[in-house]
Amino acid sequence: MNIGFLMYAWERVDPRFDSTLRLLHECARRGHRVGVMHPDHLLVHHQVPYANCRVVEPSSTPDASPEAFHTNLCFSEQKLPLSEFDALLIRLPPPLDSEVLGFLDVVQNDVFLLNSIEGLRRAESKLYPLTLSAATQACLPATHVLNDRSELKRIIESMNGRVVLKPLRGLAGNGVSVVEPDDPENLDTVLRRYTDGRFGSESDYVMVQEYVESPEPGDVRILLLDGEPLGAMQRRPPEGGFRSNLHAGGEAKPHTLTSTEQRLCQQLGPELVADGLDFVGLDVIADKLLEVNVCSPGGLTRINRFNNVRLQASVIDFVETRVQAWRPQIHADGADA
User: Which H or E run includes 251?
Assistant: First the structure.
Protein backbone atom coordinates (compact mmCIF):
# COMPACT_ATOMS: atom_id res chain seq x y z
CA MET A 1 0.00 0.00 0.00
CA ASN A 2 0.94 3.64 -0.39
CA ILE A 3 0.48 5.38 2.97
CA GLY A 4 1.08 9.09 3.46
CA PHE A 5 1.63 11.11 6.60
CA LEU A 6 0.53 14.74 6.47
CA MET A 7 2.31 16.00 9.53
CA TYR A 8 4.26 18.65 11.40
CA ALA A 9 7.84 19.41 10.39
CA TRP A 10 9.97 16.26 10.41
CA GLU A 11 12.64 18.15 12.35
CA ARG A 12 10.26 18.31 15.32
CA VAL A 13 10.14 14.53 15.69
CA ASP A 14 11.56 13.34 19.02
CA PRO A 15 12.48 9.71 18.34
CA ARG A 16 12.24 8.82 22.04
CA PHE A 17 8.53 9.57 22.35
CA ASP A 18 6.99 10.53 19.00
CA SER A 19 3.77 8.61 18.22
CA THR A 20 3.81 9.53 14.52
CA LEU A 21 7.27 7.98 14.15
CA ARG A 22 5.92 4.71 15.63
CA LEU A 23 3.06 4.67 13.12
CA LEU A 24 5.36 5.46 10.21
CA HIS A 25 7.88 2.84 11.35
CA GLU A 26 5.14 0.21 11.54
CA CYS A 27 4.13 0.97 7.95
CA ALA A 28 7.74 0.63 6.78
CA ARG A 29 8.14 -2.67 8.68
CA ARG A 30 5.20 -4.07 6.71
CA GLY A 31 6.71 -3.08 3.38
CA HIS A 32 4.31 -0.24 2.62
CA ARG A 33 5.53 2.67 0.54
CA VAL A 34 5.55 5.59 2.97
CA GLY A 35 5.48 9.28 2.06
CA VAL A 36 5.91 12.19 4.49
CA MET A 37 4.51 15.59 3.60
CA HIS A 38 4.12 18.97 5.28
CA PRO A 39 1.16 21.33 4.62
CA ASP A 40 3.54 23.78 2.95
CA HIS A 41 4.36 21.12 0.35
CA LEU A 42 0.85 20.72 -1.08
CA LEU A 43 0.12 22.06 -4.56
CA VAL A 44 -2.23 21.70 -7.55
CA HIS A 45 -1.25 21.16 -11.18
CA HIS A 46 -3.91 20.96 -13.90
CA GLN A 47 -6.66 20.54 -11.30
CA VAL A 48 -4.82 17.63 -9.60
CA PRO A 49 -3.58 17.99 -5.99
CA TYR A 50 0.01 16.88 -5.39
CA ALA A 51 2.48 16.86 -2.53
CA ASN A 52 6.23 17.25 -2.60
CA CYS A 53 6.93 14.19 -0.46
CA ARG A 54 9.81 12.62 1.32
CA VAL A 55 9.46 8.93 0.45
CA VAL A 56 11.07 6.42 2.79
CA GLU A 57 13.78 4.44 1.02
CA PRO A 58 13.98 0.64 1.47
CA SER A 59 17.51 1.05 2.88
CA SER A 60 16.11 2.70 6.02
CA THR A 61 16.42 -0.44 8.22
CA PRO A 62 12.71 -0.86 9.04
CA ASP A 63 13.45 -3.95 11.17
CA ALA A 64 15.40 -1.84 13.67
CA SER A 65 13.86 -0.10 16.69
CA PRO A 66 11.94 3.15 15.99
CA GLU A 67 14.87 5.15 17.37
CA ALA A 68 17.42 3.36 15.18
CA PHE A 69 15.04 3.56 12.21
CA HIS A 70 14.87 7.33 12.72
CA THR A 71 18.67 7.60 12.85
CA ASN A 72 19.17 5.60 9.65
CA LEU A 73 16.15 6.93 7.79
CA CYS A 74 16.75 7.76 4.13
CA PHE A 75 14.29 9.75 2.03
CA SER A 76 13.94 10.43 -1.67
CA GLU A 77 12.18 13.61 -2.78
CA GLN A 78 9.20 12.92 -5.07
CA LYS A 79 6.20 14.89 -6.28
CA LEU A 80 3.20 12.57 -6.01
CA PRO A 81 -0.55 13.00 -6.64
CA LEU A 82 -2.44 12.76 -3.38
CA SER A 83 -4.83 10.31 -5.03
CA GLU A 84 -1.91 7.89 -5.48
CA PHE A 85 -2.02 7.17 -1.75
CA ASP A 86 -4.29 4.46 -0.41
CA ALA A 87 -4.42 6.17 2.98
CA LEU A 88 -3.41 9.51 4.47
CA LEU A 89 -2.85 9.81 8.21
CA ILE A 90 -3.46 13.39 9.32
CA ARG A 91 -0.94 14.16 12.06
CA LEU A 92 -1.14 17.93 12.38
CA PRO A 93 -1.45 20.11 15.50
CA PRO A 94 -4.59 22.21 15.85
CA PRO A 95 -5.85 24.56 14.64
CA LEU A 96 -6.06 23.04 11.18
CA ASP A 97 -5.56 25.35 8.22
CA SER A 98 -8.71 25.66 6.10
CA GLU A 99 -6.58 25.65 2.94
CA VAL A 100 -5.04 22.30 3.91
CA LEU A 101 -8.50 20.87 4.48
CA GLY A 102 -9.46 22.20 1.06
CA PHE A 103 -6.71 20.14 -0.58
CA LEU A 104 -7.96 17.06 1.25
CA ASP A 105 -11.56 17.76 0.26
CA VAL A 106 -10.57 17.08 -3.33
CA VAL A 107 -9.32 13.54 -2.60
CA GLN A 108 -11.51 12.47 0.31
CA ASN A 109 -13.55 10.17 -1.96
CA ASP A 110 -10.41 8.52 -3.38
CA VAL A 111 -8.20 8.07 -0.31
CA PHE A 112 -8.92 6.74 3.17
CA LEU A 113 -8.27 9.57 5.64
CA LEU A 114 -7.51 9.08 9.32
CA ASN A 115 -9.42 11.04 10.56
CA SER A 116 -12.12 12.16 8.11
CA ILE A 117 -12.11 15.76 6.94
CA GLU A 118 -15.62 16.54 8.14
CA GLY A 119 -14.85 14.95 11.48
CA LEU A 120 -11.70 17.05 11.86
CA ARG A 121 -13.57 20.22 10.92
CA ARG A 122 -16.17 19.60 13.60
CA ALA A 123 -14.02 18.23 16.37
CA GLU A 124 -10.86 20.33 16.42
CA SER A 125 -12.85 22.98 18.31
CA LYS A 126 -13.06 22.78 22.10
CA LEU A 127 -16.81 23.27 21.56
CA TYR A 128 -17.13 19.89 19.86
CA PRO A 129 -18.20 18.01 23.05
CA LEU A 130 -21.21 20.34 23.22
CA THR A 131 -22.47 18.84 19.94
CA LEU A 132 -22.61 15.30 21.32
CA SER A 133 -25.54 13.48 22.86
CA ALA A 134 -27.17 14.58 26.10
CA ALA A 135 -25.78 11.47 27.80
CA THR A 136 -22.23 12.42 26.79
CA GLN A 137 -22.72 16.07 27.73
CA ALA A 138 -23.72 14.88 31.21
CA CYS A 139 -20.08 13.74 31.53
CA LEU A 140 -18.74 17.26 30.92
CA PRO A 141 -17.79 19.65 33.71
CA ALA A 142 -19.99 22.76 33.98
CA THR A 143 -18.88 24.82 30.98
CA HIS A 144 -19.26 28.45 29.88
CA VAL A 145 -17.77 30.14 26.81
CA LEU A 146 -17.72 33.92 26.39
CA ASN A 147 -15.50 36.85 25.48
CA ASP A 148 -16.63 39.72 27.72
CA ARG A 149 -14.39 40.43 30.73
CA SER A 150 -17.10 41.65 33.09
CA GLU A 151 -19.35 38.73 32.22
CA LEU A 152 -16.44 36.34 32.66
CA LYS A 153 -15.87 37.70 36.15
CA ARG A 154 -19.54 37.40 37.04
CA ILE A 155 -19.71 33.79 35.84
CA ILE A 156 -16.55 32.81 37.73
CA GLU A 157 -17.74 34.39 40.95
CA SER A 158 -21.09 32.61 40.63
CA MET A 159 -19.44 29.17 40.36
CA ASN A 160 -18.50 29.16 44.06
CA GLY A 161 -15.20 27.38 43.74
CA ARG A 162 -12.02 26.96 41.75
CA VAL A 163 -12.43 27.18 37.99
CA VAL A 164 -10.29 26.42 34.96
CA LEU A 165 -9.82 28.97 32.17
CA LYS A 166 -8.76 27.98 28.66
CA PRO A 167 -8.37 30.11 25.54
CA LEU A 168 -10.70 28.55 22.99
CA ARG A 169 -7.88 28.50 20.44
CA GLY A 170 -5.24 27.14 22.81
CA LEU A 171 -3.48 23.80 22.41
CA ALA A 172 -1.14 21.49 24.35
CA GLY A 173 -2.24 23.08 27.62
CA ASN A 174 -1.01 26.55 26.64
CA GLY A 175 -2.87 29.33 28.43
CA VAL A 176 -4.71 27.03 30.86
CA SER A 177 -5.09 28.55 34.34
CA VAL A 178 -6.76 27.70 37.64
CA VAL A 179 -8.26 30.67 39.45
CA GLU A 180 -9.86 31.20 42.85
CA PRO A 181 -12.96 33.42 42.78
CA ASP A 182 -12.26 34.60 46.35
CA ASP A 183 -9.01 36.26 45.21
CA PRO A 184 -10.40 39.28 43.31
CA GLU A 185 -7.07 40.97 42.65
CA ASN A 186 -5.55 37.86 41.06
CA LEU A 187 -8.80 37.18 39.20
CA ASP A 188 -8.69 40.62 37.58
CA THR A 189 -5.06 40.07 36.57
CA VAL A 190 -5.82 36.69 35.03
CA LEU A 191 -8.84 37.98 33.14
CA ARG A 192 -6.78 40.79 31.63
CA ARG A 193 -4.37 38.13 30.29
CA TYR A 194 -7.24 36.39 28.51
CA THR A 195 -8.83 39.52 27.05
CA ASP A 196 -5.81 41.65 26.04
CA GLY A 197 -5.13 39.75 22.82
CA ARG A 198 -2.31 37.64 24.27
CA PHE A 199 -3.90 34.43 22.97
CA GLY A 200 -5.19 35.91 19.72
CA SER A 201 -7.44 38.94 19.36
CA GLU A 202 -9.11 40.81 22.20
CA SER A 203 -12.45 39.37 21.11
CA ASP A 204 -11.26 35.75 21.39
CA TYR A 205 -13.45 33.47 23.44
CA VAL A 206 -12.52 31.95 26.78
CA MET A 207 -13.79 28.63 28.11
CA VAL A 208 -14.62 28.54 31.82
CA GLN A 209 -15.05 25.12 33.42
CA GLU A 210 -15.58 23.91 36.94
CA TYR A 211 -12.44 22.54 38.55
CA VAL A 212 -12.80 18.76 38.77
CA GLU A 213 -11.39 17.25 41.95
CA SER A 214 -9.67 13.88 41.65
CA PRO A 215 -8.09 11.46 44.14
CA GLU A 216 -4.98 11.48 41.93
CA PRO A 217 -3.33 14.64 40.57
CA GLY A 218 -3.50 15.20 36.83
CA ASP A 219 -5.68 13.54 34.22
CA VAL A 220 -5.98 10.38 32.14
CA ARG A 221 -5.31 10.17 28.40
CA ILE A 222 -7.37 7.43 26.75
CA LEU A 223 -6.72 6.45 23.15
CA LEU A 224 -9.74 5.20 21.21
CA LEU A 225 -9.50 3.28 17.92
CA ASP A 226 -12.68 2.59 15.97
CA GLY A 227 -14.69 3.60 19.03
CA GLU A 228 -12.95 1.15 21.39
CA PRO A 229 -10.30 1.81 24.07
CA LEU A 230 -6.82 1.11 22.72
CA GLY A 231 -4.77 2.13 25.76
CA ALA A 232 -4.48 4.69 28.53
CA MET A 233 -2.00 6.47 30.76
CA GLN A 234 -2.16 8.85 33.66
CA ARG A 235 -0.52 12.27 33.27
CA ARG A 236 0.60 14.06 36.39
CA PRO A 237 1.59 17.74 36.52
CA PRO A 238 5.06 18.76 37.68
CA GLU A 239 5.56 19.71 41.32
CA GLY A 240 3.70 22.91 42.05
CA GLY A 241 2.07 22.92 38.60
CA PHE A 242 -1.41 22.35 37.27
CA ARG A 243 -1.07 21.39 33.61
CA SER A 244 -0.47 17.69 33.11
CA ASN A 245 0.33 17.93 29.37
CA LEU A 246 3.60 16.11 28.77
CA HIS A 247 4.87 18.99 26.60
CA ALA A 248 4.35 21.23 29.65
CA GLY A 249 6.49 19.08 31.94
CA GLY A 250 3.88 16.51 32.97
CA GLU A 251 4.86 12.97 33.90
CA ALA A 252 3.26 9.83 32.48
CA LYS A 253 2.28 6.90 34.70
CA PRO A 254 0.65 3.52 33.93
CA HIS A 255 -3.13 3.43 34.13
CA THR A 256 -5.88 0.83 33.95
CA LEU A 257 -9.30 2.07 32.92
CA THR A 258 -11.83 2.30 35.72
CA SER A 259 -15.38 1.08 35.26
CA THR A 260 -16.51 4.71 35.00
CA GLU A 261 -13.97 5.40 32.25
CA GLN A 262 -15.02 2.25 30.41
CA ARG A 263 -18.65 3.37 30.48
CA LEU A 264 -17.63 6.78 29.15
CA CYS A 265 -15.80 5.11 26.24
CA GLN A 266 -18.82 2.91 25.52
CA GLN A 267 -21.03 5.98 25.44
CA LEU A 268 -18.75 8.21 23.40
CA GLY A 269 -17.07 5.72 21.03
CA PRO A 270 -20.00 5.18 18.63
CA GLU A 271 -20.65 8.92 18.42
CA LEU A 272 -17.05 9.59 17.42
CA VAL A 273 -17.07 6.86 14.77
CA ALA A 274 -20.33 8.25 13.37
CA ASP A 275 -18.53 11.59 12.98
CA GLY A 276 -15.64 9.96 11.10
CA LEU A 277 -13.26 10.11 14.07
CA ASP A 278 -11.59 6.72 14.21
CA PHE A 279 -8.40 7.52 16.15
CA VAL A 280 -8.92 9.88 19.08
CA GLY A 281 -7.41 10.86 22.42
CA LEU A 282 -9.73 11.62 25.36
CA ASP A 283 -8.62 13.67 28.35
CA VAL A 284 -10.54 12.62 31.47
CA ILE A 285 -10.50 13.51 35.17
CA ALA A 286 -12.56 11.37 37.56
CA ASP A 287 -15.83 10.85 35.67
CA LYS A 288 -15.58 14.03 33.59
CA LEU A 289 -14.58 14.40 29.93
CA LEU A 290 -12.34 17.44 29.49
CA GLU A 291 -11.27 17.32 25.84
CA VAL A 292 -11.48 15.26 22.66
CA ASN A 293 -8.17 15.32 20.75
CA VAL A 294 -8.58 14.39 17.09
CA CYS A 295 -5.79 16.05 15.09
CA SER A 296 -2.71 14.14 16.23
CA PRO A 297 -3.46 12.12 19.38
CA GLY A 298 -0.29 11.06 21.17
CA GLY A 299 0.72 8.71 23.94
CA LEU A 300 1.48 5.54 21.97
CA THR A 301 5.12 5.30 23.01
CA ARG A 302 4.62 5.66 26.74
CA ILE A 303 1.58 3.36 26.84
CA ASN A 304 3.59 0.79 24.88
CA ARG A 305 6.38 0.89 27.43
CA PHE A 306 4.07 0.66 30.42
CA ASN A 307 2.22 -2.37 29.04
CA ASN A 308 4.85 -4.03 26.84
CA VAL A 309 2.65 -3.66 23.76
CA ARG A 310 2.87 -2.13 20.27
CA LEU A 311 -0.31 -0.14 19.83
CA GLN A 312 0.84 1.19 16.47
CA ALA A 313 0.34 -2.31 15.08
CA SER A 314 -3.37 -2.13 15.96
CA VAL A 315 -3.68 1.30 14.30
CA ILE A 316 -2.06 0.15 11.06
CA ASP A 317 -4.10 -3.09 11.13
CA PHE A 318 -7.17 -0.85 11.22
CA VAL A 319 -5.89 1.33 8.36
CA GLU A 320 -5.16 -1.72 6.19
CA THR A 321 -8.61 -3.16 6.87
CA ARG A 322 -10.34 0.10 6.04
CA VAL A 323 -8.35 0.52 2.83
CA GLN A 324 -9.27 -2.99 1.72
CA ALA A 325 -12.94 -2.17 2.35
CA TRP A 326 -12.49 1.26 0.71
CA ARG A 327 -11.08 0.01 -2.61
CA PRO A 328 -14.12 -1.97 -3.83
CA GLN A 329 -16.33 1.01 -3.07
CA ILE A 330 -14.08 3.32 -5.08
CA HIS A 331 -14.11 0.89 -8.02
CA ALA A 332 -17.88 0.51 -7.82
CA ASP A 333 -18.35 4.28 -7.75
CA GLY A 334 -16.05 4.61 -10.75
CA ALA A 335 -17.95 1.94 -12.67
CA ASP A 336 -21.23 3.73 -12.04
CA ALA A 337 -19.90 7.07 -13.19
Answer: strand 251-254
